Amino acid sequence: MDSVANWAGNVAFRATALHRPASMAELQRLVADSPRIRALGTGHSFSGVADTGGELVSLASMPAVVKVDSQRGAVRVSAGLRYSDVAPRLHAAGLALGNMASLPHISVAGAVATGTHGSGNSNKSLAAAVSALDLMTADGDLVTLERGADPDRFPGTVVALGACGIVTSLTLEAGPAFAVRQWVYLDVPFTAAAEHFDEITAAAYSVSMFTDWRQQRFTQTWLKRREPGQEPPATWLGGRLADADVHPVAGMPVRNCTPQLGLPGPWHERLPHFRSEFTPSAGAELQSEFLLHREHAGTALAALARLSAVLAPVVQVSEVRTVAADDLWLSPAFGRDSVAFHFTWVPDIAAVGPVLQNVEAALAPFEPRPHWGKLSSIAPAVVAARYPRMDDFRRLVAELDGHGAFRTDMVDAYLQPGA
Ligand SMILES: Cc1cc2nc3c(=O)[nH]c(=O)nc-3n(C[C@H](O)[C@H](O)[C@H](O)COP(=O)(O)OP(=O)(O)OC[C@H]3O[C@@H](n4cnc5c(N)ncnc54)[C@H](O)[C@@H]3O)c2cc1C
């Protein structure tokens, strides 16, 4: 196979082949004939979660299905589609997803498999919108799992790191379409943010706070308000309203971002920070993210602020968001309303590695769960112990994938008994 890497270029996939089947029958044959295979989404993960020594299969060439059920408020999508393929179609039908990640470029199946999230005190991970999925198991058979109908399996198969099989389609809950306006405050000091954390994160439907750790402040605080929403005041908690659009990463083109300054727009063109036609984030970067119980937000921020001097040289930008608890066994927000501390690092793992360990040590008292698709050096056994349903997940994987066709080194590290 020609060398294939993830989006960031830090993982060179070891797979012996990358297949792009164009039909369900072709996919079934491939899966049934392969001793070790795994789905690849759009390759936006920074961790080795998609990496396998076996074969990779992309569903991007499979027939694109976006089946809107306006009556039920649901949309069934084929698993190879990206949010940027699905969202405009849904909006045209008068419906909306409850939330989106910072970028719409990622596949729905890949995002859901890693517990990807956006922000908002009441917004759960994107996976929590899944009400049903079709899963291809190792012999090429299709199993349909539905929320409610299969309580012993469904909550384990949604955020599943690709370990239960190949998801071929997903049904997502959708509500009525809505408009959003976003505003950005500049330079809210850390002290005000820690003291008023709940007020800030409750100030809009979705709130993101950005810092580069160079000063003790959030350089940008993005408020995404659903219409009709109030106009924000010119100053707030020591910060001031931006009078021009901004990009969270210094020096990156502003046009890559979704419009700000209170300009109303449809949900899918405001909830992500980045526009689908342009490079998201910095482009040259690594990422890590840790989710902990929201009650620790202020203390954890103070612990990280003490590391500012070591963070500033290797962080392009950090983002702080909130994620509502869900019940998906491997979701980093499982069972706890969470605050997520994210790091967009410089693309230099030698420089980043030691600082990442400093971050993990500072956050350790709060038992963080690392984002499955981002970099972490916390021992798998320690992470596994932070998931109360990990043993159920191990049982489920053994039941659905007895011969380990979908296993990878990373998944194995978490699934080992005692890990
Ligand atoms: C610039 C940038 C910004 C990001 N912003 C956010 C953010 O705002 N919030 C956040 O939470 N994360 C964010 N991420 C992380 C990203 O959302 C996750 O890494 C996500 O998994 C990427 O989706 P993907 O389609 O690229 O999946 P991949 O990286 O291709 O795969 C991820 C996992 O999904 C599995 N998978 C993919 N398709 C299937 C399938 N059909 N069936 C079964 N398993 C499957 C793979 O096997 C693998 O285990 C960001 C990443 C980047 C690069």
Explain what you see:
By secondary structure, the chain is an alpha+beta fold. Helices cover 22% and strands 25% of the residues. The protein is built from 12 helices and 20 strands. The strands form 4 sheets. Strands 11, 12, 13, 14, 15, 16, 17, 18, 19 and 20 form a 10-stranded antiparallel β-sheet that branches. The protein has a 5-stranded antiparallel β-sheet with strand order 4-5-9-7-8. The longest helix is centred in the C-terminal third of the chain and has 15 residues, at 349-363. It starts with 16 loop residues before the first strand and ends with a helix. The model has no long low-confidence stretch (mean pLDDT 96). It binds flavin-adenine dinucleotide (FAD). Residues 7, 38-45, 49-50, 59, 79, 101-103, 106-107, 109-111, 113-114, 116-117, 161-162, 166-167, 280-281, 371, 373 line the site of flavin-adenine dinucleotide (FAD). Flavin-adenine dinucleotide (FAD) binds at residues 7, 38-45, 49-50, 59, 79, 101-103, 106-107, 109-111, 113-114, 116-117, 161-162, 166-167, 280-281, 371, 373.
What's the arrangement of secondary structure elements?
Blueprint: E1 17-19, H1 24-33, E2 37-40, E3 55-58, E4 66-69, E5 74-78, H2 83-92, E6 95-96, H3 108-113, E7 130-136, E8 142-146, H4 154-157, E9 166-173, E10 175-176, E11 179-189, H5 190-195, H6 197-201, E12 206-211, E13 217-226, E14 235-236, E15 239-241, E16 265-266, E17 286-293, H7 297-305, H8 308-311, E18 315-323, E19 338-345, H9 349-363, E20 369-370, H10 380-384, H11 390-400, H12 409-415
Parallel strand pairs: 1-3, 2-3
Antiparallel strand pairs: 4-5, 5-9, 6-10, 7-8, 7-9, 11-13, 11-15, 11-16, 12-13, 12-18, 14-15, 17-19, 17-20, 18-19
Flavin-adenine dinucleotide (FAD) binds next to strand 2, helix 3 and strand 9.
